[in-house]
Amino acid sequence: MKKIALGVDLGGTAIKAGLVNPQGKILRDTTVPAEANQGPTHVIKQIIKSVHQLIDGSSYKKRDYAGIGVGSPGSVDLDGGTVKYPPNFPGWTVVRLGDALHKEFGLHVEVDNDANAAAVGEAKLGAGIGHKDFIMVTLGTGVGGGLILNGKIFRGTFGGAGELGHITIDYNGPLCNCGNHGCVEAYVGAKYLTQRAIEKVKRNRRSKILSLAGNDTRRIDPKIISLAARAGDATALDILAETGRYLGIGLATVVNLLDVRVIIIGGGIARAGKPLFNPIKESVRRHVLTPMKDGLEVLPAKLGNSAGILGAAALVL
Amino acid sequence: MKKIALGVDLGGTAIKAGLVNPQGKILRDTTVPAEANQGPTHVIKQIIKSVHQLIDGSSYKKRDYAGIGVGSPGSVDLDGGTVKYPPNFPGWTVVRLGDALHKEFGLHVEVDNDANAAAVGEAKLGAGIGHKDFIMVTLGTGVGGGLILNGKIFRGTFGGAGELGHITIDYNGPLCNCGNHGCVEAYVGAKYLTQRAIEKVKRNRRSKILSLAGNDTRRIDPKIISLAARAGDATALDILAETGRYLGIGLATVVNLLDVRVIIIGGGIARAGKPLFNPIKESVRRHVLTPMKDGLEVLPAKLGNSAGILGAAALVL
């Protein structure tokens, strides 16, 4: 009874939705502006519009759909698919998104936060296949994560588990966005990564990072750092090595705590490949307890650009 | 069908065993020397002896026993109740302790490591009653722990989960016994705690810590620090406040990661009470993400001196 899933990736600017088959192939997709500034009722209308665009033009019947999966920013209460205080959505407080979609389409709906959806996506369709336990890390503006334990997403008592970006690695370290000091995110989040790159480039103006940014330090971002690293730029490689080291320290804490030895890493900067992954592996290995060194794996996420839609779809697959 | 449990607390010097009723009352107990230097076969004999001392003199029939629970140092494989490389047991490599006890007594046997047994004990008979998720920390020579998630001990992929002592709080921090830097244990383990006390006392020789230690700094230990704190000694209170602060930083990482908001703390130094618990609470609260501050609880363990026997018994209750 393998069915077609509707995956909706809700973002602050765009809603991306896709029709996904059980093998994780996107059969059809669409993008609709979120127009979040017009408030929750409007955003829900836009989501409904995106799903209609997929369904209305297709030959599938209602019984062919496994349901609608939504990956949303903010924290999500499974009960009623309630999204709470998503960042970048002005005026949203608590919105029963799941109920609204169920009412409109009469389909099974699952809403979860985007980091959890990404983990479920990798578990069912990506690098997590065959691993009953793994730690998923998404490197982006923030550092998000999800824990797959015994084959299922682990949500904790109140649904907020998986905040891998807010593992402290130095309580005297740099100030993090969360108000705390020395969180992993304060070392490897996009903003901090970029800041470190700008400082290094100012000292070494021959770095490829600067030329790729059109000699404008304000245009430096993780993508440029990663491109420069691929081109062999020493400054960029140095930044990725540092990033890997810091991230590895935080991940070693997670491994020691949970005895889960498979780590999957996705998000923009993860595309840098070996110059990032080798330092991560080395650092995790160096910092975990001796018995935990056996069987450690640090794997790149597989879902790439479509992770948002596929992760959301995986919630109902 | 509430039955009587046999709890065996295997230590490097002594084997403590008890007959425990379903309410967690120790009906009868015994202590037998482990004589670990005589090798695994001898230690197993001693364990068997301790259980015979409890069973042979009692009026219970075989059907009255729920089984034998053993809390053991080292890592434990549930399959066959196999104890691997326990510290302080020379010559032990891999010993199928569970199988040996089952063969002798024909009873159901569960073997787990002592930190997990302590967590299960608190879950079934102590401060964890009514909490489906909690983090158990045992402060002793080392800093151990156990995670109760969804009402069960969480063991991770290979059974080693719960190493709360080896959460990094400062990757540049003091060297830990595990070879890493800045682990929680390197701040709050008995050895490090004592070292800090000795340094402070050298600067302030009027501290009650020194008089309680008979003016011999070599006799300072966590118990003396905790007694001095109870007597209002400023140096001792200062040490406990620091300890609470460091431990709280590490526990905040666990809360952010697992969204588990109940923390139970046991072990010798935990008897210091409020002068330790208040700083822990304050520090956890200060370092967790805002949504996680709701409903945070830091509770003292309840099983006290009998935690070893009761935790072991709880494995089969």
Question: Which helices and strands occur, and which strands form pairs?
Answer:
The structure is a homodimer of 317-residue chains.
Chain A: E1 4-10, E2 14-20, E3 26-33, H1 40-56, E4 65-72, E5 75-77, E6 82-84, E7 94-96, H2 97-105, E8 109-113, H3 114-125, E9 134-139, E10 143-149, E11 152-154, H4 185-188, H5 190-203, H6 208-212, H7 222-230, H8 234-258, E12 262-266, H9 274-287, E13 297-300, H10 307-314
Parallel strand pairs in A: 1-4, 4-8, 9-12, 12-13
Antiparallel strand pairs in A: 1-2, 2-3, 5-6, 6-7, 9-10, 10-11
Helix pairs in contact in A: 3-10, 5-8, 7-8, 8-9
Summarize the structure.
The structure is a homodimer. Chain A starts with a strand and ends with a helix. Chain A has helices at about 40-55, 95-105, 115-125, 185-190, 190-205, 210, 220-230, 235-260, 275-285, 305-315, and strands spanning about 5-10, 15-20, 25-35, 65-70, 75, 80-85, 95, 110-115, 135-140, 145-150, 150-155, 260-265, 295-300.
Give a description of the structure.
2 copies of one chain form a homodimer. Chain A is α/β, with parallel strands linked by helices and 317 residues long. Chain A has 2 domains: 129 residues, Nucleotidyltransferase, domain 5 (2-Layer Sandwich); 172 residues, ATPase, nucleotide binding domain (Nucleotidyltransferase, domain 5, 2-Layer Sandwich). Chain A is built from 10 helices and 13 strands. Chain A has a 5-stranded mixed sheet with strand order 3-2-1-4-8. In chain A, strands 11-10-9-12-13 form a 5-stranded mixed sheet, sandwiched between helices. In chain A, helix 3 crosses helix 10, helix 5 packs antiparallel against helix 8 and helix 8 packs parallel to helix 9. The termini of chain A are close together. The relative contact order of chain A is 0.15. At the A-B interface, helix 8 of A face helix 8 of B.
